[in-house]
Each structure stands twice: as structure tokens, then as C-alpha cells.
Design goal:
Blueprint lengths: L4 H9 L15 E7 L3 H14 L4 E4 L15 E2 L9 H18 L10 E5 L2 H16 L5 E4 H7 L14 E5 L3 E2 L2 H14 L3 E3 L4 E7 L2 E7 L2 E10 L5 H7 L7 E13 L7 E4 L4 E5 L4 E12 L7 H14 L8 E12 L5 E4 L5 E5 L9 H14 L13 H4 L16
Parallel strand pairs: 1-2, 1-11, 2-8, 4-13, 11-18
Antiparallel strand pairs: 3-7, 4-6, 5-6, 9-10, 10-11, 12-15, 12-16, 13-14, 14-15, 17-18
The protein binds flavin-adenine dinucleotide.
Flavin-adenine dinucleotide (FAD) binds next to helix 2 and strand 12.
Organism: Rubrimonas cliftonensis
GO biological process, one term: tetrahydrofolate metabolic process
Subcellular location: Cytoplasm
Length: 415
């Protein structure tokens, strides 16, 4: 059903809800199986069907669609990257975000309210000027603000007695937020409408092999054969790939937490990030202040974090905008991040024929969802990467051609 004002009205008054997608039984075989019904898996299935004409596809999800990080993130979207390998990819994602809701005919509340990165030293301002120039050379919007420019946008920040005074900021006006779970639902609905089978409550427990090649998956709902199998399971990448024989991937799983306050009147104009600590904040349409900071710092598969990081994040918040101390914290939660060794993702074939990998998104994969799906679909459909995502190779950790956006070296817990 195509959604319009009329169909919404009809649905609102109808005694029965039309399901947003079907609940099919798994078929014995598909042309393509995508493991993982998160944002990236669903987007891949959607673009496989829509852009590359591959509709004989199943998405196999161990829980319910969107139960992973796609529904747990702080919803920030942006393309303010520095390095050549990253800027064109994230800008492609931003362009897809800009047309997404019309494209999949679903309200994902994409809101380009701006992303402002604050700087607190001359050196940091120089680094932002460099990043802004790199962005503009690639045709991406970037504006360097001085302290007065920041004050005009966010007068509530601590300008007067801060330990790390605000010197200015790098603003990307086209950045902003999107409603995370609606993104998953929109892609799921769009894929389902094009014939993709969305199979929930089916955990992949092993891979089917034919000689050296991967020929499908073993799941808790039976074996399903496939010509090509794509893995997009984010924080569970090491676990799932170990079943295919890859027990040493350049990935560590870490917990990242997020926090939301009680609903408040509109105060935060867009997304603001603190440059002297790790803290980022925006305000949801319901009024909650949505914020987060660093990963917990130890490897874990638990979808919950500890109190030391809560304290650290809240301290950074208090240093940046002391008024936050008056707000009540409503909820916190955690998700498992697939932290790669250079902080950049992997979209590549694997050495096992028929098996493709999409991983290493660290805590920046939500903004990448549209481009990640598009490029993973391209790779699977054509068995060749698109030039825009060609740098995200798995073997870059062996050859040394890493994409170290943050300049942190090979320490996943620092990216
Ligand atoms: C607290 C938090 C804040 C974040 N903030 C941001 C942000 O502001 N901006 C941003 O860009 N990114 C952010 N991220 C990161 C972003 O959410 C992730 O990088 C991205 O969602 C990962 O891709 P995904 O959506 O496909 O993952 P997921 O939604 O985790 O999808 C993976 C799916 O695979 C399934 N799966 C796992 N194992 C199996 C199996 N054996 N069989 C079948 N299915 C399986 C899981 O159940 C899951 O549904 C944040 C993450 C968290 C946790």
C-alpha cells in the first residue's frame, strides 16, 4: 500500500491495522541471504531489489527487525569527514538521506537541523579548518564559526568560566538527526513491497558449505540455501564470522551507552559535540535531551553498560552546559559496537567464495545506513565494489592501507 494522507486517515479509522510487512515462512533457497535485520541489512535488501533488480532475497534476523543498534543509537547523521576514503561515501549517504522519505514513501523524520563540533584550542580550530576545507573540496557544506557565531546559536553553553573555553566550531548545516527505528521500518517495508522475505526470530547458527564456498546458512528455523550470503550483524560480527571460519577479524566488540532526559521545551537547536571531552547532544521531537559519550572501554557482547561511563558523560555535559544538571535523566541503554582497528568500516568480499562482509561501523554506522546498504547491495549484485566504497577493503589491515580518520592508530577502543 502506498502511504498518503488519505491512506493514513483510512488506517486510523479502520478497526484492523494493515501489517507493514509480511511474515513469510523461509523458502528452502534464495539468490541472496542477508544475515542481520538491522539498518544495514534491511537497507541492503531494499537497494538489492530497487536498484539492482535482485528480489529473490531473504533477510534473516535472530530477534525482531530493528532490535539491534539501529534502534539504540543517538540518531545523528552527518558527512563531516576528513579523509578521501570516507568523505565521498558519507556524502553519498547524506544525499540518500535527503531523498530517503520520498524514496521509500515512509516518514523517517529526517531533520537537517545542523551538526556543530566545538573547538577549545587554537590547534583544534586549525584541525577543524583543515577538515572543513577537505569537505568543501569534495563539495560538502562546512562553515567555520568563531566563538560569537557559536554564542549566537547556543547561548546556553558555558562560555564564561569554562576550563576549556569555546573558541569556535565547525558547522555542517545539512547534518542533523533521523528517527532511527522508523529508518529500519521504512527500509523493511520498502524491501517487503519489492518481494524480499523478512524472516524474524531466525538466528544464524552456522554456514552451509559446498567445497570451499559458502552456500547458505543454518538457522534456528532450518537450513536456507543461497547463491550469495551477506553478513551485516554489527556488534555480533566476530561471533557470526567465526562460524564461517574467520576467527581473527580486525574487529573488537564494545558497549556504547546512550542517555535521554525527561521531555523539555525546545532548547538545543541541532546536534552539538564537545571538543574537549567526548560528549554529543541533541533534542528529540518529544523534548528529551539525547546524549552520549565514549564506549565503555572493555570488550563485551552485553547490550548494557556500566556506571563509570555514565559519570564521565554527565561530567562532560556539566562542563559544557551546566544547565543540564537541572534535567532529570529518564533512561539509558547500550548497544554493541563493531569497533574496527582503524575506525573505518569494511564492505568487501571475503576469502570464502559466496560470502560478503559489511562491518566495522564503530559508533558511526547509523549515518552510514543508506550508503552502506546501497554499496553492499552493489557489491553483492555485481560481485565488485563501487569506486566510492572501494577503500573499505578487508585486506587493508594486512597491507597497511588503513583509513585512520581520527589518527588514533590500531587501537579500536580509541576510535
Ligand atoms: C548508544 C548508541 C549510539 C549511537 N549513536 C550513533 C549516532 O548518533 N550516529 C551514528 O551514525 N551511529 C550511531 N551509533 C552506531 C550505529 O547505531 C551502528 O553503527 C549501526 O546501527 C550498525 O548497523 P546496523 O543498524 O545494521 O546494526 P544492528 O541494528 O545492530 O543490526 C545487526 C542485526 O544483526 C542481528 N544478528 C546478530 N547476530 C545474528 C545471528 N547470529 N543471526 C541473525 N541475526 C543476527 C542482530 O539481532 C541485529 O538486529 C550508535 C550506536 C549505539 C549503540
Amino acid at each position: 500500500m502506498r502511504l498518503s494522507a488519505l491512506t493514513l486517515l483510512r488506517e486510523a479509522f479502520s478497526p484492523e491495522r494493515t501489517p507493514v510487512w509480511r511474515t513469510p515462512e523461509p523458502k528452502p533457497a534464495y539468490r541472496v541471504i542477508i544475515v542481520g535485520g538491522g539498518g544495514h541489512g534491511l537497507a541492503t535488501a531494499y537497494y538489492l531489489a530497487k536498484e539492482f533488480g535482485v528480489t529473490d532475497v531473504a533477510v534473516v534476523e535472530k530477534g525482531w527487525l530493528g532490535s539491534g543498534n539501529v534502534g539504540r543509537n543517538t540518531t545523528i547523521i552527518r558527512s563531516n569527514y576528513l579523509l578521501d576514503g570516507n568523505i565521498p561515501f558519507y556524502e553519498h549517504s547524506m544525499k540518500l538521506w535527503e531523498g530517503l522519505e520520498q524514496d521509500f514513501n515512509y516518514n523517517a523524520m529526517v531533520s537537517q537541523r545542523g551538526v556543530l563540533n566545538l573547538c577549545h584550542s587554537d590547534a583544534q580550530r586549525d584541525a577543524y579548518a583543515r577538515r572543513g576545507n577537505a569537505m568543501r573540496l569534495h563539495g560538502v557544506d562546512a562553515e567555520l564559526l568563531d566563538a560569537d557565531g557559536v554564542r549566537a546559536m547556543a547561548p546556553f553553553l558555558n562560555f564564561d568560566d569554562a576550563r576549556f573555553p569555546i573558541k569556535g566550531g565547525l558547522l555542517q548545516k545539512r547534518g542533523g538527526t533521523a528517527r532511527h527505528d522508523a529508518v529500519a521500518w521504512g527500509y523493511a517495508r520498502g524491501a517487503d513491497l519489492r518481494g524480499v522475505d523478512l524472516i524474524q526470530n531466525a538466528e544464524v547458527t552456522g554456514f552451509l558449505r559446498e567445497g570451499g564456498r559458502i552456500a547458505g546458512v543454518q538457522t534456528t528455523r532450518g537450513a536456507i540455501r543461497a547463491g550469495r550470503t551477506g553478513v551485516a550483524v554489527a556488534g555480533n560480527t566476530s561471533r557470526v564470522m567465526a562460524m564461517a571460519g574467520f576467527d581473527r577479524l580486525p574487529i573488537e566488540s564494545h558497549v556504547l551507552q546512550a542517555f535521554v532526559s525527561e521531555g523539555l521545551k525546545p532548547i538545543i537547536p541541532g546536534v552539538i559535540t564537545y571538543g574537549a571531552g567526548h560528549f554529543y547532544i541533541s533534542q528529540s521531537d518529544k523534548g528529551g535531551l539525547v546524549f552520549g559519550g565514549d564506549i565503555d572501554g572493555y570488550a563485551s557482547y552485553a547490550q548494557r553498560g556500566g556506571l563509570p561511563v555514565l559519570e564521565d558523560v554527565v561530567e562532560a555535559g556539566m562542563a559544557l552546559m551546566p544547565m543540564i544538571g537541572r534535567a532529570k535523566l529518564l533512561r539509558s541503554w547500550g548497544g554493541i559496537m563493531d569497533m574496527s582497528m582503524d575506525g573505518s568500516p569494511i564492505i568487501d568480499r571475503t576469502p570464502a567464495e559466496g560470502l560478503y562482509l559489511n562491518a566495522g561501523w564503530c559508533y558511526g554506522g547509523f549515518k552510514a545506513t543508506p550508503a552502506s546498504g546501497w554499496h553492499f547491495a552493489h557489491l553483492i549484485a555485481k560481485d565488485a565494489p563501487h569506486p566510492v566504497a572501494a577503500a573499505y577493503r578487508l585486506d587493508r589491515f594486512r597491507t597497511g592501507r588503513t583509513i585512520d580518520e581520527k589518527g588514533m592508530g590500531p587501537w579500536p577502543n580509541l576510535h
